[in-house]
Design goal:
alpha/beta; 6-stranded mixed β-sheet; 28 helices; 29% helix; 18% strand
Length: 1021
Amino acid sequence: MAKTEKTRKKMSAKWFTVLIGSLLALLIAFAIALPAVTVTQFDDVMRDFFGTAGRKTEGTGNEQTEKLDKEYNKSDFKSVKELDDYEQKFVRDAGAEGFVLLENKTEAGKGLPLATSASNKTKVSLFSKNVTKMTAGGTGSGVGYINGDLKSAMEAQNYEVNSTLWDFYTKGEGKDYKLGGGVINFGQSYQWQINECPLDVMQKQSGLLDSAKGTTPIFVFSRTGGEGGDLPRYMGGYTKIEEDKDKHYLEPDSVELGIIQYLNDNFTNVIVVVNTNNAFELGWVKDYPNIGAVVWAPGAGGETYNALADVISGKVTPSGHLVDTFAYDAFSSPAMMNMGDFQYLDSAGKSAGFGISYDEGIYVGYKYYETRYFDKVMGEEKVGTYDYAAAVQYPFGYGKSYTNFEWSNFTVSPKADNGEITVKVDVKNVGTVAGKDAVQVYVSAPYTAYDRENHVEKSAVSLVGFAKTGKIEPNATENVEVKINVSDFISYDDVKAKTYILDEGDYLVTAAEDAHAAANNVLAYKEKTTANGMTAAGDKTFVGVWNNPEFDKTTYSKSNVNKDVEVTNRFDASNYIARDKYLTRKDWEGTFPVTHGKQTAKVASVDEKNGYVWQETVSDDIKAKIAAAGRAASNNPMSDADAAKKFNGFGKEGTLELIDMRGKAFDDPAWDALISRMTVKEVTTIINMAGYKTDGAKSINKPKAIDLDGPAGLNSMVGHESYSITYPSEVNIAASWNKEISYEHGNLVAEDGLRENVLASGWYAPAMNIHRTPFAGRNFEYYSEDPFISGVMGVEAVKATAKKGMYSFIKHFALNDQEGHRTGLATWSNEQAMREIYFKPFQMCVEQRGTVEIKYWEYKDGQYTEKTAEVPACLAIMSSFNRIGYTWAGGDYRLLTQVLRQEWGFNGMVITDYDNGGYMNKDQMVAAGGDVALKQYGGSNIALKDDTNKFYAQQAMHNVLYTVVNSNAMNGYVHGVAVGADPFAYYILILIAVGVVAAGLSVWGGIAIWQRWKAELSQNK
């Protein structure tokens, strides 16, 4: 048969060798490079993702050390199940206590609770796609999850839930509608779509709406928030409905209001649940007379559904109170005039970064609304046409209950020598069900001629104390006592005295149910009435007086812990506007902030008001100062030469081990000897790569210490740890006004850290920035618009974790109050506002932290003696992404050394926020008083090549080691126990598999090449 196809020519041995050899070379290079790069650069990330055979670096000792009890911190629970069960109950109870009853009609057939029983089940219909997935908290480091579903939670409370409607949202046409995820991957993208299922879609489903007849409808509004982006002030990029494009995220859209209208028209008792962590606009509620109750339900963690069912049923009587002012118009606050996308341009029109100016000064939240109202009633000049009743719907501290309370026997004690004043009040339950109440104490400080002349601003009322009652039965009374301190009455004068002052005059102390009632009590004391414009009569019998006879600029001008350190101006260079241009009570109208920049450039911003970025041209000098980095940009006044002279050396001989310093004073001279034993490589690694751990150091037997993220539950960068608990959001915890809840939150996080599969020593929380505006993306992770309640809640959490050996990184220090452009955002403010509003929660945690007792074994002359010592509870802080004025906060000597360490006496570790490179310069960080970088790979590194950097690195090690040695990281260690190898990481198996495959293919390739050459040579013979 003749050939019909040409025989394909076989590749020559030469070209076969080139092809296969090249592929094998690439494979071998990959197999060699993969483990080298992975182990050296991504070890922590891979360990987090694939897991390890254990969490802790185990030490190895000897027969003598094995006999010692080296578990310095132990769980209070007998088993994991006992802890899990307790935590679940805590989350449920705490979450419900953080819900706030905003409206409740008491006429028959209206309002809450909805009575039900096993024998007579009340029928309810759950409206809104949000009922299938409510907000537990937020996204980012505070991510969390909810257990179960709302239908099951309601049925467990003996309700009959409309299954037709539920199935529509979960299985039917309504299932494809859902709230957008908000901030995705820390700001890589945004999904702010509300996407509620429209009424007309529901109407087309035969029998769907009819299924709700004879039931009580519950409609859930839900909004989310997250790390890396702020809530949109303009919805044009997230909706196709024209009338909704000019709305913002914190108000209902037309689809939601369409359903509310239907419910109002067809039902007599509509229950509205507002599942948001941000203050929501609710002025529209008054337009729907059949709305019987409104509950603000900020994220309650894993038990959100059960907690909500508890409140609806009356199993729990609501006792939460607002920690933010709910205004009719979210844009009415002065802070909103400058919040969001504000871009700087240089003289050539190119970007010079982003910035925000806090032109409102101290007048954040209620400190603005109540003070302007106060001045209006008092008849002050230049207040303008301000109408409080039209501005504020629910004041700071507001909250209703299913019962009623009467307060009596209010007293204010004389001031004690330590500045303490005791406020007492009797709280009686005059209702029909048991409940809790919150006693709030405010001070009204004198606003003097000195203040007016020197731009010292004063809030009409300021929160200075509070207490939550226990559960009070009907007709029972609880005697409540609140300790306050004159140190919370002071103001910071950054113009003349340049320190804290206490004006002469009467300081009026009042107990009230919210900030507005407090203002009215003070106005009543000043003989004002509704005829003067008051919204309601106050009670002057609930006002006590403490008189300061003379102006005092001395008492608070020195550090509380080091009397040689003056408290004085540090941030004069951080004013963007002239000092006399900030908002002032002297001229509310004339100094009300104006928005910086213009939107004429038409640079799009999907989230910004009107849809465009605000742009402003800045000088080349400002541009250069913002761009500056390195030691010279740190504001450290010490010269490089002087710093270099203080370097004490590395790699020295000695016998000291880290554990020998447990319980020792921070200023013990032995620290220098210990740190000088460390190697340059160890110090470099600890400083540069402290993401979710500080590395071990064999030279001094320092074990690796695990640090984890998560105010909502311990997690690493790849998600929650292997247990499922999700704690209530911090705003929910604050809204409980219950210090014990915050304490127990910290206690249980520390318990989680002691779990065998977790073993964490550090916690990246609590977060204590301020709700400067309602639109900040991480308001769920911060406590409040008020610094005092933020500080109190933070103190409680920090003390609790410290008792179990966990150090809490209070964050983000400081002025990190918006997420937009947070990486390097230039934040401008005056020093009074910085210290009184934004620094105060951190200062309270550091100065009011108290101490905890720790156990250690002292090693001397071959013998071990068990001892105890007191160490500070607050030993860790996380700095922030933003700049304070020109200077990155994590590299600012003024902030980290002069204020934090020298004025406040902080002796612990400062870590950066997540280091994504660029401006987070490590030379600048250590020169400023920062210590380590929250980084696992990439980013800039410190290079310890000169003695100046080495000296600063030694200081950093002192701070880090003092923190770690007094923590649970030392469980298992005494002198003589050597640090072992890290636990086996499972990703190593993948590397081994890759190596085996590469080796196998190499052998195959070699054989194939040999056979090809053999065949070709044989054929050529």
